[in-house]
User: Which sequence fits this backbone?
């Protein structure tokens, strides 16, 4: 569930910001924003976690009835925001790597600037952008701090973002460190869950690989 | 925003400038203005000058007629302003801030000034297509490459696009080679095929003028011959302006030839006359291979 939320935040905002920086921003703006983004990447994730728990959740509780103090919605949003600087910076690099000759080809057909951005630059940078999102996503999936603080440790299977739940990594650690007896269902579940994590990551990579082939950039 | 083509140009220019005084720096014969054409025109370049953002005047008071459904070739030594002039005709220079045009590029028969303040560069590019020196297919399928210009014009009907794509690929003499892999990536084609694909892409929206900037300089002799044949065939249906370094090519494919030198159009005339009986000493030097 938070995975969807993360992408829901990261994809549209990440793309818009990357396009703005690469295609529209004046060089002076880009030169200021890029280092700022890279600095944001260095903020310790526990800061995001407490920001989620202490600021974001109380704020959203005003608007969303039934939102618990420990929930999935807020960390989902926060994780989405947290990976944004990384996603934006990597996708922007990919977009800037699209050669000008392709842009000029688009303009020569009578495309307007936004058409060049959406029809030439995004497809041209597709594998880079996909890589940015997959890597950003895997950062978020592997991220325990924000969720541990703001979503709790309760291995709760829910699609209701107002409730809390644990991440896969948090669950594995919790189970293996805790007093789960060897051979019990709970113990075995660690492996099932671990396998699931493996399958999810593998699936991401296979999709990424396929897309990469399909939209091969040979320029 | 300077591509490798431009950096190349700059170094070459330096060479040309260094070598030049050895021959005929004394030659100050003024440019010979083109005579009156009897055949119908598609465009008229009048007293045209162009300034790059750094203030450098790359084109100086050029006058040149562009004949309707004929091939006009622009030749001249490296750095003389051939590409600059060509790229003015579809307002490519508007993509980079600070560039400035002066004079008129009148599109016939309407008499619209393409570089006038009231004319929109995007609309100009819808009417004047362009093919570049290096093939630059989009990272899309072959079909989508050719369809791109139609989609920009808001054409959505699948059957219409199918028809226009096939038609353009046939006109660009590449249909037989790609008809079975229209949904394959354009990057799987050879360089020569990619260039003909780019020509098809430029032709699909039916432009009034097609500009070609050294379209064969990245191709081998066989692919070059194919593109040259193609240019001649196309001139029956579309007005073509082609920049080339290769004088044999200009002689083979064009009806009119313009010789440029350091931003000026030294001489313009029937291709045969320019190559067999040039009037300007600089033209003669150039075509006899004394420089450039
Ligand atoms: N972006 C630019 N800013 C300033 N000067 C430029 C720019 N691009 C080209 N020039 C200069 O304008 C002149 C004409 O360049 P142009 O590219 O039109 O030459 P060309 O005739 O096409 O040469 P080539 O045969 O090498 O392609 C050259 O002296 C070049 O250095
Ligand atoms: Mg050139």
Assistant:
């Amino acid at each position: 569930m938070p995975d969807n939320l993360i992408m829901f935040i990261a994809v549209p905002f990440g793309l818009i910001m990357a396009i703005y920086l690469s295609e529209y921003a004046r060089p002076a703006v880009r030169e200021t924003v890029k280092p700022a983004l890279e600095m944001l990447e260095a903020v310790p994730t526990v800061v995001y976690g407490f920001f989620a728990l202490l600021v974001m959740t109380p704020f959203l509780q005003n608007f969303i009835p039934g939102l618990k103090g420990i929930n999935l919605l807020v960390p989902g949003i926060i994780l989405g925001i947290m990976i944004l600087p990384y996603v934006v910076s990597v996708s922007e690099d990919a977009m800037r790597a699209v050669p000008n000759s392709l842009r000029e080809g688009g303009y020569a057909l009578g495309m307007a600037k936004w058409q060049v951005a959406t029809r030439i630059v995004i497809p041209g940078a597709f594998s880079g952008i996909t890589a940015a999102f997959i890597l950003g996503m895997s950062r978020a999936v592997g991220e325990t701090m924000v969720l541990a603080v703001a979503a709790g440790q309760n291995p709760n299977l829910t699609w209701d973002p107002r409730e809390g739940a644990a991440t896969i990594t948090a669950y594995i650690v919790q189970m293996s460190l805790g007093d789960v007896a060897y051979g019990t269902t709970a113990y075995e579940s660690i492996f099932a869950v671990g396998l699931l994590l493996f399958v999810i990551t593998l699936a991401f990579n296979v999709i990424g690989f396929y897309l990469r082939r399909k939209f091969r950039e040979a320029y | 925003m300077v591509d490798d083509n431009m950096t190349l140009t700059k170094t070459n220019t330096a060479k040309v400038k260094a070598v030049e005084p050895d021959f005929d720096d004394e030659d100050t014969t003024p440019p010979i203005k083109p005579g009156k054409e009897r055949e119908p025109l598609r465009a008229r370049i009048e007293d045209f000058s162009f300034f790059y953002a750094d203030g450098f005047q790359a084109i100086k008071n050029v006058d040149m007629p562009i004949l309707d459904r004929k091939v006009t070739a622009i030749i001249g030594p490296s750095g003389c302003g051939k590409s600059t002039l060509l790229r003015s005709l579809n307002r490519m220079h508007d993509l980079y801030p600070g560039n400035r045009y002066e004079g008129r590029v009148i599109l016939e028969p309407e008499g619209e000034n393409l570089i006038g303040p009231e004319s929109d560069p995007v609309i100009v590019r819808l009417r004047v297509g362009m093919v570049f020196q290096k093939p630059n297919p989009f990272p899309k399928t072959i079909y989508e490459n050719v369809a791109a210009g139609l989609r920009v014009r808001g054409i959505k009907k699948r059957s219409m696009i199918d028809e226009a794509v096939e038609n353009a690929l046939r006109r660009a003499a590449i249909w037989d080679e790609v008809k079975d892999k229209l949904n394959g990536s354009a990057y799987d084609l050879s360089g020569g095929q990619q260039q003909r694909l780019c020509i098809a892409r430029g032709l699909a929206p039916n432009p009034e003028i097609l500009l070609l900037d050294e379209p064969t300089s990245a191709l081998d002799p066989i692919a070059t011959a194919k593109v040259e044949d193609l240019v001649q065939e196309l001139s029956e249906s579309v007005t073509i302006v082609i920049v080339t370094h290769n004088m044999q090519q200009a002689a083979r494919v064009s009806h009119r030839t313009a010789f440029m030198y350091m931003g000026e159009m030294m001489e313009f005339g029937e291709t045969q006359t320019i190559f067999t009986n040039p009037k300007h000493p600089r033209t003669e030097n150039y075509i006899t291979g004394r420089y450039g």
Observations:
- Residues 168 and 197 of chain A are 7 Å apart (CA to CA).
- The longest helix of chain A spans residues 185-214.
